[in-house]
Amino acid sequence: MALDLGGRSVPMTVRRSHRARRIHLRIDTVDAAIELILPRWAGLAQGLDFARVNRQWLMQRLADLPERTPFADGATLPVHGEMLTIRHDRARRGPAERIGELLAVGGDHAHLPRRVRDWLKAEARRGFAESAFALAQRIGRKPGLIRLTDPRTRWGSCSPDGSIALSWRLVLAPPEVARYVIAHEVAHLAELNHGRRFWQIVAELVGDHAEARAWLRRNGARLLRYG
Description:
Blueprint: E1 2-5, E2 8-16, E3 24-28, E4 33-38, H1 44-53, H2 55-63, E5 76-79, E6 82-88, E7 97-99, E8 102-105, H3 112-138, E9 146-149, E10 156-158, E11 164-167, H4 175-187, H5 196-206, H6 210-224
Parallel strand pairs: 2-4, 6-8, 9-11
Antiparallel strand pairs: 1-2, 3-4, 5-6, 7-8, 10-11
Helix pairs in contact: 3-4, 4-5, 4-6
């Protein structure tokens, strides 16, 4: 399904939610698409009318999205706070490799995005796991399985069994921001809530984290537009 926005056809998905109390619109940051969420009582026609009434709001939200940065030759990526330029060499063999300020990627051009993503995930897996175990040790805890995910709304999560999930895209954020998110989830090993004691633990692990949280609010959409 698509919605016409001033002559521009924008993809739109419709999702029915049993928990929603009203018709709701959200922007899919990754795909620059629209999601129409309908409560049980609302029909599709009502939802479409609601979307049309809010056409200007949707157009503005889409216009405000950061430009997409594809994983392509010549693109620059902020990895661990340092800018790397993707350099593709079809004749190169083996996995992608960092060489100074370059990320050298070989193989067929069609596989370039996947090879870059695999390298970024490997970087995230190595650094995030090391940081999570070190931070957990400071509060006398030990995380379970540490997984990399690619959610569109959450940067991390911690399960009651101690498993921690982290977005691999945090490798593209400043190191202090990634460290804050990791500390946030590690703190849940001790407090599965967001009460006062929880935030005290986060502060004990990383100090003042207000700027890291603010950075994610300002730039989170940018992280989702890579690749």
